[in-house]
Amino acid sequence: MDYESNDTTRGGSPMSTGMSAADRAIAERTWLVIPLFNEATVVGDVIRHATETFPHVVCVDDGSTDDSADAARRAGAHVVHHPINLGQGASLQTGLRYALSDTDAEYFVTFDSDGQHRVEDALDMVRRLATEPVDIVVGSRFLDGRTKPGAIKRLVLKAAVVFQNVTSGVRLTDAHNGLRALSRDAASSIRVTQNRMAHASEIVNEIGRLKLRYAEQPVHIIYTDYSRSKGQSVWNSVNIISDLIFK
After folding, report:
1. CB of 82 within 8 A of CB of 60?
2. Total count of domains within the chain
3. Are 91 and 112 contacting, i.e. CB atoms less than 8 angstroms apart?
4. Which residue of 42, 117, 155, 166 is most buried, as measured by CB atoms within 10 A?
């Protein structure tokens, strides 16, 4: 896959002084990997807030037609470019490959650019990687009552979970949550071939194939008017399953 980076350094923004020494040490060894496509109005705020905790952030600009890349760069992210839109799966592949080139990095978080994910949840997930015998921590909207996805979307997502659990052998409550924390071994071992949204199911399949140790973390996904306007149809989970079956 062809891509170019405009960054050659591994610097980062100052971290929050309110963090414990242990959390600062964990965050220093973590990269946030953020797919980016036409989110210029919000991505700067997302990155500025994220870098208060995590100094290392890479955004993969997936052929944006607005100034998303410039906004991300000004906010403190490393920016890697896809010359054309390839999809979120391809962006995660590129971003993880870039982050893995930092030999000091131990943890990797896949994170959305539209403000739906919370940095606090990401830190909780990475903390578990550092202290528990797990290779990957997957966020779940359904382990507590904070996230309100709507009745139809909840039904479709639950149906997709049942399908995924049967086909992969991995028991999750939320198979298509984009907030994940991976150890270096997991990030290096998982192979994603689906460029677009079916990558989420493929990652779950890889957890089963590789027999990775996994855990779920309750997370609060924030649905704003903006994220809903940019988001996928509630039937996207059905399309993902179709992609995997008929690819």
Report:
1. yes
2. 1
3. no
4. 117
